[in-house]
């Protein structure tokens, strides 16, 4: 149990770094160009940066623990705590911007998303009736509502938990004296 406390205290600041990074990206996209919220490459960039933070958290935690072993559990906690904190900070930032500061911006992003959906589906040769149905779905479902942001947070935690399990497999270190 002592290791878990140390792991949490070492890993938690990385969650704050992730939250600051993601919040900064959200604020900059909001300020400079709302259409950035529909760009695939922004999601890829976020993914790569988050992975880098999680790897850094794993490396630092493993170093600080300085035991001959770094258990799978500790390695998973070292990845999951930062992502839970970081995504929470990012979700709160998004909720504040799109529900309190500028709710009209949420509508603009939904329109960009609907346009992107229409263009993509047209490019794939999807029938117009199906395209219209998909666009209507995008426009009727506010992705920035409090409920949808909370759902998104839960789904992201589940996704990143799987990534955390993979990182835990990579960074765990078995106790050499256990053999």
UniProtKB/TrEMBL annotation:
Keywords: Membrane, Transmembrane, Transmembrane helix. InterPro entries: DUF4199. The chain crosses the membrane at residues 12-32, 38-56, 76-101, 153-171. This is DUF4199 domain-containing protein.
């Amino acid at each position: 149990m002592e290791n878990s406390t140390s792991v949490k205290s070492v890993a938690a600041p990385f969650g704050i770094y992730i939250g600051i990074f993601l919040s900064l990206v959200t604020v900059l996209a909001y300020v400079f160009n709302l259409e950035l919220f529909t760009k695939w490459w922004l999601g890829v960039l976020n993914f790569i940066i988050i992975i880098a933070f999680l790897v850094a958290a794993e490396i630092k935690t493993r170093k600080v623990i300085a035991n001959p072993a770094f258990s799978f559990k500790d390695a998973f906690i070292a990845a999951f705590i930062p992502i839970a904190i970081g995504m929470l900070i990012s979700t709160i930032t998004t909720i504040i911007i799109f529900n309190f500061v500028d709710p009209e911006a949420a509508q603009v992003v939904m329109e960009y998303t609907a346009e992107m959906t229409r263009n993509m589906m047209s490019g794939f040769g999807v029938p117009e009736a199906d395209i219209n149905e998909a666009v209507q779905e995008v426009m009727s479902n506010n992705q920035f509502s409090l409920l949808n942001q909370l759902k998104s947070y839960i789904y992201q935690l589940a996704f990143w938990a799987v990534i955390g399990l993979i990182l835990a497999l990579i960074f765990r270190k078995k106790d050499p004296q256990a053999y």
